[in-house]
Design goal:
Length: about 240
């Protein structure tokens, strides 16, 4: 039986998404990572058990309605420009066995404000323990929680071999280091677009529904997702 969860995310603009798709394709080709193409390159903010309505995010958005579900300005107000919050790229990082390009967000409380606006308590994602698994010990049982960690970074791929517990601890540590080093080199070589300190422009807040198989340890092999709604983010929303 599949489990369904709802993910609140920041969605990069189309130009950045195309760059990220090229990067993820490289990760797929070099490492054979199916997870690099199994889901969107988003900043995963929080997971929820139930759908979150887009209406609460009106104060974070501007622009015309339609496909993006953005909020139309009233006739009595001057139109506002849909500027993005300040989101800068950081270094590649591993969270719970998953690879991200870390980000630095201004204002600092923006991400927490977006999560709080959902109106329901988020649930924790299953994390792969950083501690080595003792040889001969049984692998941990996947929890009934979404397997992709929510993190302050753009999701790229999973370190699939480590997550699937297919290696001994020492080999796992070496592969983790090699995986991160290779990813750093690929990010640097592909484009200066992702260099630390460079800003991510024209972002949206969005809600995805994701359906996983019960075996979360290989989530990238059995996942379906749908973008439920997205709204253009702007500055000046009173956070």
């Amino acid at each position: 039986m599949r489990r369904e969860f709802y993910l609140l995310s920041i969605i990069p603009n189309q130009h950045t998404r195309l760059k990220l798709q090229s990067l993820r394709h490289q990760l797929f080709q070099v490492h054979g990572l199916a997870s690099a193409v199994a889901f969107e390159p988003v900043i995963p903010l929080a997971w929820f058990e139930a759908p979150v309505d887009s209406g609460g995010y009106a104060r974070f958005s501007s622009g015309a309605g339609g496909l993006d579900n953005t909020v139309t300005e009233s006739k009595g107000k001057a139109p506002q420009t849909a500027n993005t919050p300040q989101i800068e790229f950081g270094d590649p990082m591993l969270w719970g066995g998953h690879l991200y390009i870390s980000v630095v967000v201004q204002p600092e409380n923006l991400l927490q404000k977006l999560i709080n606006t959902a109106g329901q308590a988020p649930i924790s994602a299953s994390l792969v323990s950083a501690a080595p698994i003792l040889e001969g010990a049984a692998p941990p049982t996947p929890e009934s929680a979404p397997p992709i960690p929510a993190a302050e970074g753009i999701f790229l791929a999973a370190n699939e071999t480590e997550i699937a517990n297919e290696e001994k601890p020492a080999a796992g540590h070496r592969r983790r280091a090699d995986f991160l080093q290779t990813a750093v080199q690929q990010i640097a070589q592909l484009s200066p677009h992702f260099s630390p300190g460079r800003s991510l422009e024209s972002t949206r807040i969005g809600m995805y529904s994701l359906r996983f198989s019960p075996d979360f340890r290989r989530w990238w092999e059995h996942v379906e997702w749908t973008l439920e709604w997205k709204i253009q983010l702007k500055q000046g929303y009173g956070v």
